[in-house]
Design a protein that fits this description.
12 strands, 7-stranded mixed β-sheet, alpha/beta, 2 domains
């Protein structure tokens, strides 16, 4: 008889988004008006044409279908380093401070695996991205929380005195809050006291509103001494399904990640890397157009949901407080509109919901109209 499932799989929490998608799909299959899904953050606008054309050209060449360099193309590392210099004013050593990832979500798991021993403590934001908890489980680590206000301000007094790692995320999923003043400096000071490494998840870094400028963790003095940053091609360039991202900053961490990936992966498909170079080094007008699209949608959503304390300084989400008695389950079943329940992002998310702006305008407007009616009835 074969053995049971390994304990590392048993430690994994329910995958929040898989479960949410299943509930939404089941509701959509029932009779009624077409369901509007405003729960999932799946970019609805793909990359600019020149990026897809670069992929096509590279895929048609006979020399691109073997194994790519395990550590990634040097030209790709140079392209992301150049973008960090141009956009964020940060100088990176492309050889030692950049690791190429098969999607930045992979980096969330690899950080825990390369920087945390079994039984050590990982500190996660509450509310925060649910898959951070998967990284804790896979690393057999202990879990602690850093409470966040609805505006994303951490309560550092509630953080443990000793820990191995801290996950931060600004602009925040789900809070849609940009980095509060001094938060990175406070994180560095806490890391020095606690002995923890810091990972800043910068997936939504370029999607900021109201004339804000993107704020990289690495721009703060001392950041590279205690941690690193994840950059995703998914949100800035609409390349979510392409699965390519970067770990940048502390050279020790990037080397550990590359060492782990040498054992787990055989590189990223070379045409995807060449297309990523085209995105990073080519025309950047699509970045601003994408950001402006989400800001326009944000404005409509905030106006429609004014009674629910809607917040959105960045990302493609709106974080809102649900009135007493109105739940995401009721909205799904009675009003045929899906939101992501706030409690799935942590205990401090209870009573809130996350609305996604990554949906076509007509669907968003229909969903907002249904929410207005639901809120009025409530």
């Amino acid at each position: 008889m074969r053995g049971p499932r390994p304990t590392r799989l048993e430690r994994l929490p329910e995958q929040y988004f898989a479960a949410l998608l299943a509930r939404v799909a089941a509701a959509a299959a029932r009779d009624g008006e077409p369901l509007v899904d405003l729960g999932r953050g799946n970019p609805d606008v793909g990359p600019p044409p020149h990026v897809a054309e670069a992929l096509d050209r590279a895929a048609r060449r006979p020399d691109t279908h073997g194994y790519a360099p395990f550590a990634g193309l040097p030209a790709l590392k140079e392209a992301i380093a150049a973008r960090y210099a141009d956009v964020y004013g940060i100088e990176l050593d492309a050889q030692t401070e950049v690791a190429v990832l098969p999607g930045s979500k992979t980096g969330l798991m690899e950080f825990a695996q390369t920087c945390v021993e079994d039984g050590e403590t990982i500190v996660l934001p509450d509310p925060g991205y649910p898959d951070y908890r998967s990284a804790v489980a896979l690393a057999a680590a202990e879990l602690a929380f850093l409470p966040l206000s609805p505006g994303g301000v951490p309560d550092w007094d509630a953080a443990p005195a000793r820990a191995a790692a801290l996950y931060l995320n600004y602009p925040s999923n789900p809070l849609a809050a940009c980095a509060p003043a001094g938060v990175f400096e406070d994180a560095i000071a806490w890391a020095r006291r606690s002995g923890a490494w810091v990972m800043h998840d910068f997936a939504y870094g370029d999607l900021v509103f109201d004339r804000r400028r993107p704020e990289s963790f690495l721009a703060v003095d001392g950041a590279r001494e205690v941690g690193f940053e994840l950059f995703s091609m998914s949100k800035t360039y609409g390349m979510a399904g392409w699965r390519i991202g970067f770990a940048l900053g502390n050279a020790e961490i990037t080397a550990r990640i590359e060492d782990l990936q040498n054992h787990q992966f055989a590189g990223v498909f070379r045409p995807v890397q060449e297309a990523a170079i085209a995105a990073l080094a080519g025309p950047q007008e699509s970045v601003e157009a994408r950001r402006a699209t989400y800001e326009r949608r944000r404005d409509r959503a905030v106006a429609a949901l004014a009674g629910c304390e809607p917040r959105s300084e960045g990302t493609f989400f709106v974080w809102l407080r649900l009135p007493d008695g109105l739940t995401c389950e009721r909205l799904l079943e009675e009003h045929r509109v899906a939101l992501a329940p706030g409690e799935g992002f942590g205990e401090r998310g209870r009573g809130f919901a996350r609305l996604s702006l990554a949906t076509p305008d007509d669907a968003l407007d229909l969903g907002l109209e249904r929410l207005r009616l639901a809120l009025g009835a409530g």
